[in-house]
What does this fold into?
Amino acid sequence: MKHSVGKRNRSLAVKLLVIAGLLAVIYWAGLRAYAAWHFLAAQSVTNTMLESGRPDQPGIDEANRSIALALKIFPRQPDYLDLAGRLQEMHASQVGVVGKQQRELLESAADYYRAALSVRPLWPYSWSNLLGVKDKLGQTDQEFKLAMRRSIETGPWEPQVQLAVLTTGLRHWSSLGGLEKGLVRDKVKDALIKQPREVFNIVKSFGRPDLVCDGDVDYQQISQWCSQELASTPN
It folds into this structure.
């Protein structure tokens, strides 16, 4: 009799453990779904604003509320952190946001990108995002140079990363060391393969024909520009 009771108790305990395990899985899945839903809601609002080219404060606030709920559940999820940083940047770009407030928003964005990189250090877009914020803050320090190098190393053929590196590199050319200048020059050559028009617009805006006119270039506008520059250069 005692053996039978003990067997039933063990069987009941196993069933309870299975049920508890299933409930834990269901709870965890529910949390993930809840966080993902808020992330997607924030992402949708953000993408709509970016596509319109007119980010507005109500939209930024709405997206911030959604991403805050997602981060409350998963504070180290790198996609959530990257989007939160992007929203801080968008807030900093609003009309009337200047001085200390703007700087604090950009520093907050940088903190989000750093947190994302602490979890996912090989993601080129987080490095590129951090590079962009350092650019806006005018901070051409060692972290700026590290972000540039890591952007190039982790995303050598990512179009957006290439353009971010070229733009920030040329804007702060005088602050770069020999290593970083060499990397930017190499990235110009790489980017010309995939997006010559975009590279041409950036290089021309900074008046740097030396970066594209030292070899054979198939893109007609660049060839014409190089010919004009050569013709206007005194012998």
